[in-house]
C-alpha cells in the first residue's frame, strides 16, 4: 500500500481557510526556510489511508492472539468509557486538590484493591511500563540496604528462565547479575540458589508462574533462602493472569513487585496505548516508594511526598487513565470474577495443551498455568520445519502466531497463551489449525519456508529491521 506521503499532491488539503490576517512577528532569521514536509491530502485520502492501514492491522478485536508472556486478552469497552469520563480527562495535575477529589479517590481505591490482589501494603502508579516498574522496585531494594548501611549487597539473583527485562533492569540500577539455573522440572534449582545466596545478595527477581508457564511449588522455600541470606524478594507480576484472586505474591514471601496493568488488567497494549507498571511493596519499603502519595485526611484526599522516597520516576501520578481502566476492570469483575478469570485462563491453556500434545512435543508436560511452551526441536529435525516456519504458516490461517524462541532455555519454542477471553469454539478452531499445520509440516516439509503466502508482508529481514530500522521517509523534492 502507498504511504501517506505517496498519496500527497501539491496544493491538496482538508480544509478551506481564509488568508492569514495575523501579522508575522517572528524575526527573519528564526523563520522556517522551506515549507514543512507535511502530506498534502484530501479528507477522503486521509480517511481511506487510515482505513486501509487498520485493515492490515491485527489485534485482539480481530481474532485469536495467543502471544505467550504478553497476555493479549479482550479489553472490555466499559474500561474505555470510564477512563474517558470528563471528570478524569479534563483536569490538570496542578489543579488544587479539593477540585480533583474524585480522581484521588480512584487512585486510592486502585491502590487498596491492587494491594489486596497482590498481598502488598502500598503501591505507586508512577512507573509507565513493566520494565519501568522493575527498575523502580530495584531502586527500593537498593535504598533499603543503603538505609541500613549494608553496602556490600551488590548482586541480584535471576533465574535463567527470566524475562529479558529482569537482568536489564537490575543492571541499570547498578547491580551485578547472578544467573540461577533451572532444575529439569522447569523450577528454580534450589541447590544452586542456596550456593548463590549470601552476604552480597541484594535480592532475587522471580516470576511465578515462571516464563515456561509453571508454578514453582518450592516458592516458600525459595523466598526463605533469600531472606535468610539477608536479601529481598522481587516478584515480576507482569503476568498475573494465572493467579490473580487465587494466590498472592505477598503470601509467597515477596517484598516488592510490579504489575503490568496493560497485560493482566485489561488495558490495551502492543501499539494499543500507554501502559502502567505499578510498583507495590510491603510496609517496611513504603517510605522509599516514588512520587506523590494519596492519603485520606479528615477533609478529603491529600497528596504528600516522603523524605525517604527514591524520587520521581515519572511526572505526577504516571499514566492515570490506564489506572482508571484497570480499576474499572477489577470493580466490574468483583472478587469472585477476578479469580474466575484466572481459573478460566488456566483451564483454556490446559485444554489446548492436552488437545495438541499427541502431535506437538511439550517442553514441560505437566499441568501448566496460563500458558504452555511447545518444543519444536524434534519436528525441525525430522522435517526441516522450524518454530518460525510454523508461526509464519499460522498467519495464512488468519490467526496471530504465539510467542516464538522464548523462553531462551527452550530452543525451538512456541509459547501459547490463549487467555480466559476465548470461547471453547475459538479454541477448537485454533486447535484444528495447529493440527493442520503439523500435518502440512510432515507432508510438505521445507515448502513451509515460503509461508506466509497470504500476508501483505511475508518474511521481513528481522535482523536488518532491528539493526537498521528505516523510520523516516526520504523526501525526493527539496
Ligand atoms: C512483558 C513482561 C515484562 C515487561 O513489561 P513491559 O511493559 O513490556 O516493560 C516483564 N516481565 C515479564 C515476565 C513480562 O512478560
Provide a descriptive summary of the structure in words.
There is one protein chain. It is built from 15 helices and twelve strands. With 478 residues, the chain is an alpha/beta fold. It has two domains: 257 residues, Aspartate Aminotransferase, domain 2, CATH 3.40.640; 131 residues, Aspartate Aminotransferase, domain 1, CATH 3.90.1150.10. The two termini are 24 Å apart. Pyridoxal-5'-phosphate binds next to helix 6.
Q: What key phrases describe this protein's structure?
A:
seven-stranded mixed β-sheet, 2 domains, 478 residues, three-stranded antiparallel β-sheet, alpha/beta, Aspartate Aminotransferase, domain 2, 11% strand, Aspartate Aminotransferase, domain 1
How would you name the CATH homologous superfamily of the largest domain? Type I PLP-dependent aspartate aminotransferase-like (Major domain)
Q: What Rg, in angstroms, do the CA atoms define?
A: 25 Å
Main structural class: alpha/beta
Mean model confidence by pLDDT? 94
Write the element-wise H/E pattern from the N-terminal end onward: HHHHHEHEHEHEHEHEEEEHEHHEEHH
- What share of residues is helical? 25-40%
The percentage of residues in β strands lies in 5-15%
CATH class bucket of the largest domain = Alpha Beta
As for the number of domains, it is: 2
Query: Strand order, biggest sheet?
Result: 1-7-6-5-4-2-3
Amino acid at each position: 500500500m502507498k504511504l501517506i506521503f505517496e498519496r500527497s499532491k501539491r496544493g491538496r488539503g482538508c480544509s478551506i481557510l481564509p488568508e492569514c490576517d495575523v501579522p508575522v512577528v517572528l524575526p527573519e532569521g528564526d523563520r522556517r526556510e522551506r515549507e514543512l514536509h507535511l502530506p498534502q491530502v484530501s479528507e477522503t485520502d486521509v480517511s481511506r489511508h487510515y482505513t486501509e492501514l487498520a485493515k492490515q492491522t491485527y489485534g485482539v478485536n480481530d481474532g485469536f492472539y495467543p502471544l505467550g508472556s504478553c497476555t493479549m486478552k479482550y479489553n472490555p469497552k466499559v474500561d474505555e468509557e470510564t477512563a474517558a469520563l470528563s471528570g478524569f480527562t479534563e483536569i490538570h495535575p496542578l489543579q488544587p486538590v479539593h477540585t480533583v477529589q474524585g480522581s484521588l479517590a480512584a487512585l486510592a481505591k486502585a491502590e487498596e484493591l491492587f494491594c489486596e490482589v497482590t498481598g502488598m501494603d502500598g503501591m505507586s502508579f508512577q512507573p509507565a511500563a513493566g520494565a519501568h516498574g522493575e527498575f523502580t522496585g530495584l531502586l527500593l531494594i537498593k535504598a533499603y540496604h543503603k538505609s541500613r548501611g549494608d553496602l556490600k549487597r551488590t548482586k541480584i539473583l535471576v533465574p535463567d528462565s527470566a524475562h529479558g527485562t529482569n537482568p536489564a533492569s537490575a543492571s541499570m540500577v547498578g547491580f551485578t547479575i547472578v544467573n540461577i539455573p533451572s532444575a529439569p522440572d522447569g523450577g528454580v534449582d534450589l541447590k544452586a540458589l542456596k550456593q548463590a545466596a549470601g552476604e552480597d545478595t541484594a535480592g532475587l527477581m522471580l516470576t511465578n508462574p515462571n516464563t515456561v508457564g509453571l508454578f514453582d511449588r518450592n516458592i516458600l522455600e525459595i523466598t526463605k533462602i533469600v531472606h535468610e541470606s539477608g536479601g529481598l524478594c522481587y516478584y515480576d507480576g507482569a503476568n498475573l493472569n494465572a493467579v490473580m484472586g487465587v494466590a498472592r505474591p505477598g503470601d509467597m514471601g515477596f517484598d516488592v513487585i510490579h504489575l503490568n496493568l496493560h497485560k493482566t488488567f485489561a488495558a490495551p497494549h502492543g501499539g494499543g496505548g500507554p501502559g502502567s507498571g505499578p510498583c507495590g511493596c510491603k510496609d517496611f519499603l513504603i517510605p522509599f516508594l516514588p512520587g506523590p502519595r494519596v492519603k485520606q485526611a479528615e477533609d478529603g484526599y491529600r497528596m504528600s511526598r516522603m523524605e525517604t522516597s527514591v524520587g520521581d520516576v515519572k511526572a505526577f501520578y504516571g499514566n492515570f487513565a490506564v489506572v482508571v481502566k484497570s480499576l474499572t476492570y477489577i470493580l466490574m469483575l468483583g472478587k469472585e470474577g477476578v479469580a474466575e478469570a484466572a481459573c478460566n485462563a488456566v483451564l483454556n491453556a490446559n485444554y489446548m495443551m492436552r488437545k495438541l500434545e499427541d502431535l506437538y512435543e511439550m517442553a514441560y508436560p505437566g499441568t501448566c498455568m496460563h500458558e504452555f511452551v511447545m518444543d519444536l526441536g524434534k519436528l525441525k529435525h525430522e522435517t526441516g520445519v522450524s518454530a518460525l516456519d510454523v508461526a509464519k504458516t499460522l498467519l495464512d490461517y488468519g490467526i496471530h502466531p504465539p510467542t516464538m524462541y522464548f523462553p531462551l532455555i527452550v530452543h525451538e519454542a512456541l509459547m501459547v497463551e490463549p487467555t480466559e477471553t476465548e470461547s471453547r469454539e475459538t479454541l477448537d478452531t485454533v486447535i484444528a489449525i495447529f493440527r493442520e499445520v503439523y500435518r502440512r509440516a510432515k507432508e510438505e516439509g521445507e515448502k513451509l519456508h515460503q509461508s506466509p503466502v497470504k500476508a501483505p508482508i511475508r518474511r521481513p529481514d528481522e535482523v536488518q529491521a532491528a539493526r537498521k530500522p528505516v523510520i523516516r521517509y526520504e523526501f525526493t523534492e527539496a
